């Protein structure tokens, strides 16, 4: 090896660029050495853990070789394997298995072969025994094939023999099965190889041993027929084994016949037939009925009355059931009663439920409303409010549509209101009349004191000076003391009109009345001038105040002599 000095180190080859390449190659060689070392260790371990034995032997973990047992084989000197079915190994130490001969078979890991049982065969080496096909058989062991049965026979269920075909069955071929005779043919013999066709007027189903003649009302025009042809509807036949439809006869009116009938039948109640040769009778329409048998006209159909009904073809009318009604005659069905009505059967109309009860559609009875008292005025409907709400409340309750309550009816006070208004108006009129009459009396002077004559006034003045019952007021010349006036209380007049107010003309000295003797020429002497004002029309009692006395002076009172 030549080493060349370089700028970055030692070169070991001319192509080397320096010491770095040298180090890289050294590391690569170390890695390869480690790999080879591990491989050698693995091979050494394998050679020590398992020893390869000769063919027909196998080894174990203890490096010991064992011989293969019978039914097994050891091809590689390491492992032992079972022989598959159809093969075997009769001896120990075999490196392979042997195939069983034809007519024999073996199971898994077998050391010998078994012969096929009777009814079975094996035509191949190393195969399994098979069951003989139907129509063949075998009676020996170790059979390599099965034998076919002759015509008219077939193999038994065990495939060990052949048996004859049963009556109604045939087999025209060897090694085949027995088959049923087709429809329209028959065979009554065993071991048949063919079947015989039925004659006209007779038929047979498949597998028959004999043919059957056509029954009355049917016919078979051809041989080998599988079934008889029935006579058409509206006709009938009485012959057995007929070969033509000419034997089918037409039914008369009021009768009918279904296809293949041996005779005609009369129309049943509720039906009629006005024409011959009919397959069925016409039904009476719904809402009518007929009890007659063999009717030939629709005139026998009678209308059902109200409260009853009938379906088409009825022999009698049926009353409407409970909860239904029929208000018209000739009806095919009854109508259902509405809610809050009922009927008990045969009803022409439904009866309305009484107040306080209810019912559903088609009810036979009304149900009493069950109520729970909520207060003194209202009842809540219990459970289902809609029931009694639809049925109505008790007679002394009204229905609240919004709350669905039965609310107690308020007492009818209309007549009381009318009587009260009448009495009030009449009383007002009477009072008004009394007031008007009273006021008229006042105006006539009957309520107030009447005016007195001149002489009465004079006498009153002399007897009662200053009386308010006089038209004129006269004051006493002698002045009165203030104390005497104060002690006089006001008096309530027992009249409804006030007295005339007298207003003296106090225009003299110290508000004394001025006396004008010439003002009243009918009076003598000096009198005070007064003004009389008419009283207002009123009947209210007024208080009579004493007329104040004239002013008092300081002059001493003179005593009369």
| Structural class designation | alpha+beta
Radius of gyration: 75 Å
Roughly what percent helix? 10-25%
The percentage of residues in β strands lies in 15-25%
Q: Please summarize the sheet with the most strands.
A: 4 strands, antiparallel
Number of helices: 5
Categorize the overall geometry.
Answer: flat
Low-confidence stretches: 1-11, 43-49, 374-387, 444-448, 450-488, 491-497, 500-546, 553-561
C-alpha end-to-end distance: 207 Å
Total beta-strand segments: 48
Mean pLDDT: 75
The spatial strand order of the largest sheet comes to 41-42-44-43
Task: Walk me through the structure.
The chain has 561 residues and is α+β, with helices and mostly antiparallel strands. The protein contains 5 helices and 48 strands. The strands form 23 sheets. Strands 41-42-44-43 form a 4-stranded antiparallel beta sheet. The protein is flat.
SSE arrangement:
Layout: E1 4-6, E2 9-11, H1 19-49, E3 57-59, E4 65-67, E5 72-73, E6 81-82, E7 87-88, E8 98-99, E9 104-105, E10 114-115, E11 120-121, E12 130-131, E13 136-137, E14 147-148, E15 153-155, E16 162-164, E17 169-170, E18 179-180, E19 185-186, E20 196-197, E21 202-203, E22 212-213, E23 218-219, E24 229-230, E25 235-236, E26 249-250, E27 255-256, E28 265-266, E29 271-272, E30 282-283, E31 288-289, E32 302-303, E33 308-309, E34 318-319, E35 324-325, E36 335-336, E37 341-342, E38 351-352, E39 357-358, E40 367-368, E41 371-373, E42 378-381, H2 385-391, E43 397-400, E44 405-408, H3 414-444, H4 454-463, H5 482-486, E45 491-492, E46 501-504, E47 530-533, E48 543-544
Antiparallel strand pairs: 1-2, 3-4, 5-6, 7-8, 9-10, 11-12, 13-14, 15-16, 17-18, 19-20, 21-22, 23-24, 25-26, 27-28, 29-30, 31-32, 33-34, 35-36, 37-38, 39-40, 41-42, 42-44, 43-44, 45-48, 46-47
């Amino acid at each position: 090896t030549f080493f060349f000095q370089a700028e970055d180190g030692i070169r070991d080859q001319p192509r080397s660029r320096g010491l770095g390449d040298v180090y890289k190659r050294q590391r690569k060689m170390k890695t390869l050495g480690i790999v080879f070392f591990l491989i050698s260790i693995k091979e050494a371990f394998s050679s020590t853990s398992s020893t390869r034995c000769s063919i027909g032997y196998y080894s174990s973990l203890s490096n010991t070789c064992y011989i293969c047992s019978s039914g097994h084989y050891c091809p590689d000197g390491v492992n032992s394997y079972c022989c598959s079915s159809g093969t075997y190994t009769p001896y120990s130490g075999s490196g392979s298995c042997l195939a069983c001969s034809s007519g024999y078979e073996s199971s898994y890991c077998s050391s010998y072969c078994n012969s096929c049982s009777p009814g079975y065969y094996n035509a191949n080496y190393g195969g399994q025994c098979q069951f003989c096909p139907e129509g063949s058989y075998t009676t020996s062991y170790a059979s390599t094939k099965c034998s076919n049965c002759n015509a008219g026979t077939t193999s038994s269920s065990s495939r060990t023999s052949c048996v004859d075909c049963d009556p109604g069955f045939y087999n025209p071929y060897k090694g085949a099965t027995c088959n049923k005779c087709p429809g329209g043919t028959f065979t009554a013999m065993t071991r048949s190889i063919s079947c015989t066709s039925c004659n006209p007027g007779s038929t047979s189903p498949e597998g028959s041993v004999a043919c059957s003649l056509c029954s009355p009302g049917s016919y078979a025009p051809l041989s080998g027929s599988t079934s008889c042809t029935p006579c058409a509807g509206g006709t009938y036949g009485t012959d057995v084994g007929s070969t033509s439809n000419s034997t089918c006869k037409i039914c008369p009116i009021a009768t009918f016949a279904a296809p293949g009938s041996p005779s005609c039948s009369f129309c049943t109640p509720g039906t009629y037939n006005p024409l011959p040769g009919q397959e069925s009778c016409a039904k009476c329409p719904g809402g009518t009925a007929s009890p007659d048998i063999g009717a030939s006209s629709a005139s026998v159909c009678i209308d059902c009355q109200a409260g009853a009904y009938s379906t088409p073809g009825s022999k009698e009318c049926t009353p409407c059931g409970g909860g239904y009604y029929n208000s018209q005659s000739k009806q095919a069905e009854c109508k259902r009663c509405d809610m809050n009505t009922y009927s008990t059967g045969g009803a022409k109309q439904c009866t309305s439920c009484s107040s306080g009860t209810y019912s559903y559609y088609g009810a036979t009875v009304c149900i009493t409303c069950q109520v729970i008292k909520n207060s003194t005025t209202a009842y809540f409907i219990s459970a289902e409010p809609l029931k009694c709400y639809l049925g109505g409340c008790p007679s002394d309750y009204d229905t609240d549509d919004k709350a669905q309550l039965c609310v107690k009816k308020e007492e009818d006070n209309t007549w009381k209101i009318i009587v009260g208004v009448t009495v009030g108006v009449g009383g007002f009129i009477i009072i008004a009349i009394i007031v008007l009459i009273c006021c008229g009396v006042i105006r006539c002077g009957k309520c107030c004191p009447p005016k007195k004559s001149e002489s009465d006034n004079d006498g009153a003045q002399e007897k009662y000076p200053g009386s308010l019952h006089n038209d004129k007021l006269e004051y006493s010349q002698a002045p009165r003391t203030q104390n005497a006036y104060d002690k006089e209380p006001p008096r309530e007049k027992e009249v409804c009109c006030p007295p005339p107010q007298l207003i003296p003309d106090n225009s003299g000295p110290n508000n004394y009345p001025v006396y004008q003797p010439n003002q009243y020429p009918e009076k003598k002497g000096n009198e005070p001038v007064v003004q009389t004002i008419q009283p207002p029309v009123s009947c209210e009692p007024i208080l009579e105040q004493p007329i104040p006395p004239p002013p008092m002076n300081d002059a001493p009172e003179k005593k009369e002599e």
